[in-house]
Queue: 4 jobs
Job 1
Amino acid sequence: METIEVKTEPYSDQKPGSSGLRKKVTVFKQANYTENFIQSILDSIPTHDREGCEIIVGGDGRYFMKEAILIIARIAAANGVASIVVGQNGIFSTPAVSCIIRKRSARVGIILSASHNPGGLDGDFGIKVNTQNGAPAPESITNKIFQLSKEIKSYQICADITVDLTRIGKQEWSIHNGKKFTVEVVDCVQDYSDLMKEVFDFEKLRKFLTVENAPKILLNAMHGVTGPYIKRIFVDELCAPETSIINYVPKEDFGGHHPDPNLTYAADLVEILKKGEHDLGAAFDGDGDRNMILGKNGFFVTPSDSLAVITSHMNCIPHFVKQPVSGVARSMPTSTAVDKVAQCKGLNLYEVPTGWKFFGNLLDANKISLCGEESFGTGSNHVREKDGIWACLAWLSVMAERKISVEDIIKEHWVKYGRNFYTRYDYETVETEAANKIITKLRHMVNESSFVGAKFSSSDKMYEVKFGDDFYYEDPIDGSIAKQQGVRVVFIDGSRLVYRLSGTGSTGATIRIYVESYESNPDTYSMDAQIVLNPLVQIALEISSIKEITGRNAPTVIT
């Protein structure tokens, strides 16, 4: 098999964000665009590590995934990689890639997904790199990849390689230098399913779902990657009826929908749960790392509360009985609900920037066992990615142990710890100049010495500023620094406002505003979060001038 060198010109826009490089499909289909980025990924690996190594490759089934896998195989072969392992039909969930990297001691993983972003010809595509520990590549690596992408002059490729992704087994080629190159197509679910059986008590869960008057569950794969996983695990292994899963056939365009598991984009699941016929509902995003949990009658569990409840019930999960929880971490914008659990249980608590990669060092150093983000991501030390199906199994384990409803579990939690009312306003595809103007304005505001002690009022409620800053993080393991990770406004009563620019979109900018208020009065616990938080929301909008600067009268999504 001949290796050829193709001359190319660099692109200036291949800087990975918090979850890899995400652009429109049409961008990735530009001449040499994907090839350049893949070559830059391989060039970031030292030659002695790259030659003869194994790479895990897979994606969420979205449009252009299969073409990208073929490009990866051809460039990997030409660059001395010994083998790539890919899921059947190209499918691997993001947590499954992390699982297999760790199981096989692979050198690197390449995940082809734009996560919760829409797919299809006119949709988004993404390429993310995971390192040897199974975690998303840290900024030191993604910055190196970006630098190489700006300097690239050519890439190496074995253009004649073709791969049959439908057939499980090994496909092998002899490269011109006499070395062998192998593509191994594997069952995309098996290794991950085996790991779940180690983490959870499948026999107990099976009995819970099959006894007389067993609770009814409904899981929505949103036509993303989790379809084959929930079919195998919940239907084939745990014996739930097949009617327990919907939208479980992966589609290149996610059925024309936005594969984001929240109240807006998973509204079909919410409406079904509101009928009161199901006891547990869950939705998963395109690549399977995010989740939304619902109880009977559509009772919504915020991701922040979900992390706190799982932490408080960690002994319901066999994995944590065998390996007691060492600590817990949350992203900075996530509500402080889990903080109170950690304090009660004597667990170390860490606050990190948004981006799952920031949990990796803490997990590897055994500083934490559980972690989560308000953006519908929850996970543990079983892999190095957030994991939607794991979160659903965790909730099922708590229900199986407690024998009470999702709503009762949450309300019991509030009685013990108090309730953190929480909401997030997303303004998507904002013009970049306008978004930067807002964040710059807020940074100047919190840096003013007069800001501490400033008072803001709304609806007859007064809030006094305790402090404001632009979140700064120093990794306690390797000392790496992350600056300007979100503007915080913290009030004396513990209420918080947080403003960030999200790095997960493919066009324009997404401004996220997070609003939190802690209440210890049980009379407030049953109130609607939007009503309780409305005074703070109005203050958040006012001090950001978001309406005036963007012209937007309302956010794209409220969660």
Job 2
Amino acid sequence: MDQEPPQYNADGIEQLPLRQFTEKAYLDYSMYVILDRALPFIGDGLKPVQRRIVYAMSELGLSAVSKHKKSARTVGDVLGKFHPHGDSACYEAMVLMAQDFSYRYPLVDGQGNWGSQDDPKSFAAMRYTEARLAPYAQVLLSELGQGTVDWVPNFDDSLKEPAMLPARLPNVLLNGGTGIAVGMATDIPPHNLREVATACIRLIEEPKATLADICEHIQGPDFPTEAEIITPRADLKKVYESGNGSVRMRARWQKDQGAIVITALPFQVSGTRVQEQVAALMNAKKLPWIEDVRDESDHENPTRLVLLPRSNRVDIERVMLHLFATTDLERTYRINLNMIGLDGKPAVKDLRDMLVEWLEFRFETVRRRLQYKLDRVLDRLHLLDGLLIAFLNLDEVIRIIRTEDEPKQVLMARFELSERQADYILDTKLRQLARLEEMKIRDEQQALIEERDDLEKTLGSKQRMKTLVKKELAADAEKYGDERRSPIVERDAAEAMDEAELAPSEPVTVVLSQKGWVRAAKGHDINPAELSYKAGDGFCQAVRLRSNQQVIFVDSAGRSYSLAAHTLPSARGQGEPLTGRFNPPAGHSFVAVLGGDPEQWWLLASDAGYGFRVQAKDLLANKKAGKAVLTLPAGAKVLKPSIVNDAATDRLVAVTTEGRMLVIPANDLPELSRGKGNKIIGVPPKSVADRSEYVVDILAVPEGGKVKLNSGKRYLNLRGADLNAYEGERGRRGNKLPRGFQKVDSIEPDE
């Protein structure tokens, strides 16, 4: 976008449009954050603050073999000389580089409290801790004074600092890094040093090696924890191809005398946090298989979380899959290989491009190191040539020095010396003019000539350069490398159990009262009619099922509702009204309850004589408003649902208030999930509407089963052969019952 030319007021002050000023200011700020704060440089893998900390510590002489010094001294040097920012941010960056649970290859060797995996922020203040560089830091510093990098002025132009460090290994991959810039971020996971070095050597030997070839060496990230990486290798390869993706880590565990012992947690996961999460699940009754959780971590076992199952019948594998899905025992880490390249621009790179670009940086660093060394050798040879001339003409040199006013100029003219050679001769001490020194000079000359020839051959040969870089990579891998810590394994996907699985499976009897109050009694041997009810209320219906199953309620409008049985109140009290859980249509009440196996078939019918077969799972409706299931003709009411065990052999027995009974095969009714159903027994619609005749009950009777008809205090038992007399076609009026049973109150199976 073209910027408007600056305007000046009468006082000569530049004036800019606010839009132009803010755009430029924000762009400058964002570029500063991206390039000078948040993103690592591909060469040394460091952000500016990290680079300055490492360099300042080296300048303070805090090598891996020196004594530790107060961290405050290091931070003070960094802030005072190179990094004019907050001391707490600088110290936190230093702490991070010292934590072996945060950095795969720590750069700082700390002494004191530097935090713990449970609480990385629990480190002591910098006035209490001491630090020095870790041995691995030599990978970044050993070639610093050898002409390998450019030096730039510090913030006040009083000192010089390295623009980058001459890394001998791709630290950007080894320690990774995270950062949030303006409009972009980076998340580079750590990797294993030996794997990365081997991949670099493969690329040097085979410049056309593909990403698949590289992935033979670099299996995946390698975090500073022994937890497992469970992302499939094919997915990891896709991440390396695009530079974006994610990786999943899962805690490692084992069985120990019936207990579950967690021995390694995912990267940056706190054991205390996991313990709190498990305890919260237990308190919420969402982890019924675990009796207790405790932390037995100590110095010998940095991670040891113990979970005690309630019994040895608990499926521990299934429980752990549930915990992986619901706690931090399994975590996903984002991967975004975004960094500042050799061109000074931020970019997301794939793994192969990263290594190729870093090798370009490494070859240039080695070339500069060798060239610097060659220049030093040539300079020394030049001085030795002049010194040898002086030894060969020692008397004349002494005479010139003693007699001439300008011995330097005379020496240069007399022996064709350069100014540096003449200065070096004049600076030579008298004690070095002994005859023995000539032999030393010639020996040194010979050694330097051999070194010069070797350096020139190496600099002039690509193959020699490759061999040298490979040898150095292999040597560093041997010196600083170690075995992979995070194994890459294939595991079953984590899966949280649903509420039904979480609840204990116990026999319960769910009791519904006439006023719509519900409760659950333990066991199947109770008589629900004998329970106490509120004044004006009484027993309506009960269903026997397991506590981890769903209970289904049907209201007088033909709508179904469902709840988990274990969530219902105990039968020790009088329960609670279902209207507190559901919102049935105004003026309607709950009239029926059923439940149990979701695959169980039920007969759902109205007293108009219509009905259908439906599976319990089709009646589930976990919402307050329920769902419409049974369509009721005018004036009709919902009948008590009846279990249909086998539609091929079960028979349906229907009785009307006029004393008519009809028996039909159960499979004469359709299988529906909702609707009015088909006519079971013929009842005039007008009679149903004015309630002069309607169906008393419809019962599904298994083959060979008996039926008990109740009429006041009288009852009639009908066996299989007796029922045959009432068989007929579906939808007929049915046959008349014997005298005394013209008014049947209810039908029930005869035990």
Job 3
Amino acid sequence: MNWLPVALLAVPLLGALLLLAPAAATRPGPRVYGLAVSGLVLLLAVVMLVAFDYGQAGRQQFELSASWVPGLDLRFHLGVDGISLPLIALTALLTFLCFAYLCWGSARGPGQLLRPRQGGGRPRALVFTLLVLEVGMIGTFLALDLLLFFVFFEIVLIPMYFLIAIWGGRGRRAAAIKFILYTLLGSVVMLLGLLLIWAQTGTLDIVRLAAEHGGGMSRTVQVIAFIAVGLGLAVKTPMWPLHTWLPDAHTEAPTVGSVLLAGVLLKMGTYGFARIAIPVLPEGAAVIAPWLGVFAVVGIIYGALACLAQRDLKRMIAYSSVGHMGFVLLGFATLTTVGINGALFANVAHGLITGLLFFLAGAIKERYGTADMPSLGGGMLAILPHLGSVLTFAAIASLGLPGLAGFWGEMLALLGAFQPADGLSRPIFLAFMAIGGLGAVLTAAYFLVMLSRITHGRPGPPTGDDAGSLVAVGASGGARPVAIVKPDLRDIRVYEMAAWVPLVVLILLFGLWPKLLLSLTTPAVQALLGVVS
């Protein structure tokens, strides 16, 4: 089964390249073609889930290692373990659901303010962009060579840039430039850290480096390398105060771009901590862990307070990601099996829940022509009962209600802070736990405020300046109003239900049966920490 990792990369890559051929008119349409290709990738991910040996989740499986650049001893090394498998499956699922959303939701509805609806004017280009993006995302989770990891880590930047810049909202160009500048600068610093590791150890093999647990590197070198690699990963996570690109990118990105950005791209940064920074640089991790905890809890509180101040629904969800990723970083900072398990669980839960929230935010904007919460008029549960109910479910899942997936990751991260790893100051981490607990309370506060503005209250008409406006985009890119129509207040449509139900089911499944995921990640976490089970 060593062909599976290659197939997961080859299928979307070949699918994208076929769109460049002159004969690639792809009937009945590019979006259906993209759905078929992403469906095949999802099928391969399911095969991997079935064939995976769960009794050996702590070791690499489906491994493939071939010479890549012989002169530099670089290898095309791929593999999967209990840490990467859930993220690969999550990536394949979210990409497929995005194509399902595009495929059946291609008719432009009243109030839609994006440029041609979800890429309606350039469907082949959009499908090509999403498939290349999928190659980079899956490749990042498969790579077991430091330079190969970096290559895939960077591949995602270009398609995401174009996704925001071409199919985004009115401020798309500034948001796309901000996104690419932040992430590229972070990547340069990370590359320097990776090269330092290579210079000190003479190898780029992640499996070998993790098994040696910092062998061949002094404490000082590990600290420097951890700071460099960690900064690059922190930008993508994003960690406060390196987060400022995120709200603009989420606000301006099309719905599918926001879903993949929150659901997968942010996980690439946190995954790097689990795959590279902590196991390869353990002494550096021990020195920097308290500082990582400080930035984590500041991000938790800052993200919650920023959410309370937002009017735009997409911007509020974007800032909520800063807080949720703070819990992930706090779990990593504990350097314990419990804390890192919590971080990995929160990673997957956040991808499912926030992906659903951005789908819902896009649906609301399409119907009302605005995402400004005070302007929506309230009373959605009376006007659109099913849409309002799913929004309520996603909100209470994100605030961490017990029984839903959002609860376990945050709880385990706080539990890890209660008893951090040996050598870390317990009083400091107890303070982190208390601050994180306050952040969880504030998280509940801003989601309840959001629900009170949108779903509850007496129904009223949208009052925003954009409500009911149908906007046409000329060849020059300028927008001009061509008609004023009433908001399209139809409840959940079939294609939306098809895209959202799998996420709802998985949120419930992992919330009620957390062992399903924890039994997969625990052996892998013990292996990366060098713990004998």
Job 4
Amino acid sequence: MRHSLSGIAASSGVAVAKAFVHEEPDFTIRNKTAEDAEKEGTRLEEALATSRDELSAIKQKALEELGEDKAEIFSAHLLVLSDPELVEAVKGKIKDDRATAEHALNEVADMFISMFENMDNEYMKERAADIRDVSRRVLGHLLGIEVVSLAAITEDTIIIANDLTPSDTAQLNPQVIKGFATNIGGRTSHSAIMSRSLEIPAVVGTKEATTTIKNGMTVIVDGIDGHVIVEPSNEELDQYKQKQADFQKQKEEWAKLVNKRTTTLDGQHVELAANIGTPNDLEGVINNGAEGIGLYRTEFLYMGRSELPSEEEQYQAYKEVVERMEGKPVVIRTLDIGGDKELPYLDLPEELNPFLGFRAIRLCLERQDIFRDQLRALLRASAHGNLKVMFPMIASLEELRQAKHLLDEERDKLESEGMNVSKDMEVGIMVEIPSTAVAAEQFAKEVDFFSIGTNDLIQYTMAADRMNERVSYLYQPYHPAILRLVDMVIKAAHAEGKWVGMCGEMAGDEVAIPLLLGLGLDEFSMSATSILPARSQLSGLSKAELARFAKDALNEDTADAVEQLVVDAYGSK
């Protein structure tokens, strides 16, 4: 019977094919205790070794078909398999509690998963997904369960699942897997990220895909608007096939913009940059025609390891990005970690409210040994291109001045050592705390640029944890209060002749783009796959006309009213 589901559009495009429901194996553990601990330890080691071999093969396949950046996910999985904290805890449970290998693994993995999932940070939630994926693989071997391989599918198919793990998505052959829909997940989940890399249309977070869709049913996945249509009528099939053809034409038009400057209808240039986490992300950045890197999140260099990265290791990572961008601007954010992003080797105390706690610049100013190493690496890399340094989580002028002072000290030391560093490297800050936005006039006198981090600015301004579903209705990018803070920051910077970028999700939002252009934003930084659609949208907008329009938006009283204003005028969403 025909029906439709709504979810989150995770990867654009339209797909039509028969459904294959990818069911979860039954991992029920019936035997929880064992007499022979040594035998259980051997079983564990064998299951770990088999899983290690499988993951190495999957990683190689991902490397060949998806590229180095996506293969890195499986490097992280291999690290989980050899993580002494996890493995030793399982072995300890086998020995001390006389637990079976499968029960011990399940208990320890659940503890780690729960710990990571309760952190108010999307990256750490993804680490929980990594542990779940790896532990289930090992558990399958311990329980003798054969997991269905999605790589074996040979005809055009749409995968329906509760969720797809990184291992699942790495097995998808885009020649036959035309799309997928899941019950859970969001735009930043691994399955969503991989689907965009494979350019497979995907809708996630439908809540009930697996309970309403059966094997063999004809399904349409609309990854543009976030709909799944089950057993569509002939009329709907024709309609969506036309939408599919239109989207393909649209992609071909966007591809023509790869080497173009981003210019508005009235001839104004704005910079479209990309957000990255590692040098491995550069291929997508270059292929999508980014005009720079608006945010390089350096914390990824510090994660998934047992010790701090050396100055030399950091220097090489920054240098690679700067050189490959060939003179285009590269904004590198200093370490934004602590509190919600835990590094086991730093032994940081647990905090009741880590988002408001000891993190980012606060940690760096106290742990100057860590900070100075990073500053030295950044200064050395600045000699190789257009590198700009950005400090995160700045709440006061005192913090900014102290950070700049340390940077100046390290520059003087490097120059006295005969090192080559840039003489005119720009220094800016993330504007993500309301106090900084309100005091933007003072900050603008002491920085070279601002980059507005809307993800945190919105949650701090609205006092609404963006990871908490019960208050998610308050996470409102178009709220007049947010727009007024953005307006305040841009005006303060421009009064001092400084530029302003934005590196939060809002920068690539099709409703927000006309508003931000009208408010005078100079640089929009987003995920690489959003660049060409944004460039296309901006080319049809007049900055002068939107300046007047944005003023009207600031005077609206609700986020819904602002959104409706944009939709009525520009047809977005």
